[in-house]
Amino acid sequence: MIFFRLAAFALLFIGFATINPVKAQTTQATETPTAAANQLPNIELANTDGQKVNIAQNYAQPGRLTIFSFWATWCAPCKKELRNIAEVYDDWQTDYGVKLVAVSTDDARSSARVKPLVDAERWTYEVLLDVNEDFKRAINAQSVPHTILVNENGKIIFEHSGYVEGDEDHLEEAIKAYHETANPDKATEK
Question: What's the pLDDT at 98?
Fold first, then answer.
């Protein structure tokens, strides 16, 4: 009798696992070279000073690429990525005219930790608060870290999820490739 109960339980467990598989979270980055249909959403987020910023209006600017890095204060890979980008950000601004916007997905309870962390890290880029994850949801980002590169028309031209050491190099390659395509005269000068 015990054998039949164990067998029934095992079959039930296997059936449940087949119907509802558990997905493991990884830190390996996945990239999408072109997210053709994705545009910046027409939503507003607050910056760390409480001022509202319209995403579509403020970041689709002629001649400028914008990086949006979605992160959270509790996310170690997110902070590692932003620290590594901080090391090369001045060069990226000079070489490519790129702007970085760090979008915190910390909720209302933990968003008070964002500004002190940003100040302690001495990050010079703009930080926005996506406490309800409206922006993150609008671009269909499933987790953090998640990084997108947006052209002057507000079109997402590159994105990746997760972070492993060196992902900032792939991001720079995407920036450089777009910059060379958009500015062929400047590309030959380098």
Answer: 96
The string of pLDDT tens digits covering residues 166-185 is 999 999 999 999 988 887 76
Report the phi/psi class of residue 133: left, alpha or beta, with left for phi > 0 and alpha for psi in -120 to 50: left
Q: Scanning the structure block, which residue is given the tokens 């620290």?
A: 83
Q: Is the dihedral of CA 7, 9, 15, 18 positive or negative?
A: negative
Q: What is the mean pLDDT of residues 77-104?
A: 97
Convert the pLDDT of each residue in 17-55 to its tens digit: 433 333 333 334 444 444 434 899 999 999 999 999 999
Closest CA to 172 of 103, 54, 84: 84
Q: Which domains does the chain have, with CATH numbers?
A: 30-189 (3.40.30.10)
Q: Virtual CA dihedral for 32, 35, 36, 38, nearest 10 degrees? A: 180
Q: pTM of the predicted model, to two decimals? A: 0.79
Measured in whole angstroms, the distance separating CA 50 from the mean position of its chain's CA atoms is 21
Contact 125, 102 (CB under 8 A): yes
